[in-house]
């Protein structure tokens, strides 16, 4: 999108893929050592620090960080783990709790001043998490159900033989390729789109109010500021929701590996 101000001058250029292109942190540094990688590590360390401060020395009557940590623990346990894992919930809570808060921290960085970038909008990070969860699912499935049973029970029995030539490839493609792919892409796409939308409205407000102010452009700039505020609130909800959904699917996949009837 390009729009020229009424009085001439430079055109307004909508933000695009350049928002997700980052040079190395320092001259001559490795190509992979960029801002998203740095803040991915910072996010992980922050989650570790919060967990340590909340649970390292628990008190009978929780206070401060322990109070906050227990609220998060109860939410993940009751809304994510128990519906899919039942009696196995407590065993998998460390993984699910860490996954939820890591993704939420990565997402919320989009609205943190100075950072202003959601780590999960780089596809590599959701892919690593999704593949890790899915490899765990397959490992648990083979371990608990046996190799042959795990790979054969997902195919319905008693169908005409020709049906299996079509059904088997579709079922295996859906289970082992499409499921982890959509698990990762759902998180990535929402964070990617949200970041672009916030950047667009922010730039509209800045451009038409400060960079190239005109009589006709000022209302657009004001609208851009209002939309930036509104979309920031909405995006914060989506950031939480996507962390919840990703962790919920992880619990569902772990449950299907533990029990064939899930």
UniProtKB/TrEMBL annotation:
It holds the Pfam family ATP-synt_A. Keywords: ATP synthesis, Cell membrane, CF(0), Hydrogen ion transport, Ion transport, Membrane, Transmembrane, Transmembrane helix, Transport. The chain crosses the membrane at residues 37-56, 92-113, 119-140, 161-181, 187-210, 217-234, 240-260. It is found in: Cell membrane; Membrane. Coiled coil: none annotated. It is a multi-pass membrane protein. It comes from the Bacteria. Its main location: membrane. The keyword Transferase does not apply. CDD domains: ATP-synt_Fo_a_6 (cd00310). Belongs to the ATPase A chain family. HAMAP family: ATP_synth_a_bact. NCBIfam families: ATP_synt_6_or_A (TIGR01131). Key component of the proton channel; it plays a direct role in the translocation of protons across the membrane. This is ATP synthase subunit a. It comes from Actinomadura alba.
């Amino acid at each position: 999108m390009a729009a020229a101000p009424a009085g001439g001058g430079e055109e307004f250029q909508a933000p695009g893929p350049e928002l997700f292109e980052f040079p190395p942190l320092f001259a001559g540094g490795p190509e992979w050592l960029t801002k998203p990688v740095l803040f991915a590590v910072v996010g992980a360390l922050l989650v570790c620090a919060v967990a340590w401060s909340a649970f390292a020395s628990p008190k009978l009557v929780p206070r401060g960080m322990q109070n906050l940590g227990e609220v998060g623990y109860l939410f993940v346990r009751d809304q994510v783990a128990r519906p899919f894992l039942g009696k196995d919930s407590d065993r998998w809570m460390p993984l699910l709790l860490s996954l939820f808060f890591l993704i939420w921290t990565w997402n919320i960085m989009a609205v943190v001043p100075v950072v202003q970038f959601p780590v999960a909008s780089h596809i590599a990070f959701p892919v690593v998490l999704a593949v890790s969860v899915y490899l765990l699912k397959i490992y648990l499935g083979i371990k608990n159900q046996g190799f042959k049973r795990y790979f054969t029970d997902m195919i319905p029995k008693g169908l005409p033989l020709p049906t299996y030539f079509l059904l088997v490839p579709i079922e295996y493609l859906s289970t082992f390729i499409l499921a982890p792919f959509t698990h990762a892409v759902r998180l990535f796409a929402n964070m990617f789109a949200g970041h672009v939308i916030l950047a667009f409205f922010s730039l509209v407000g800045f451009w038409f109010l400060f960079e190239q102010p005109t009589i006709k452009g000022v209302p657009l700039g004001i609208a851009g500021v209002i939309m930036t505020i509104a979309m920031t609130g909405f995006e914060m909800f989506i950031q939480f929701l996507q962390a919840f959904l990703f962790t919920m699917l992880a619990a569902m996949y772990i449950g299907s590996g533990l029990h064939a009837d899930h």
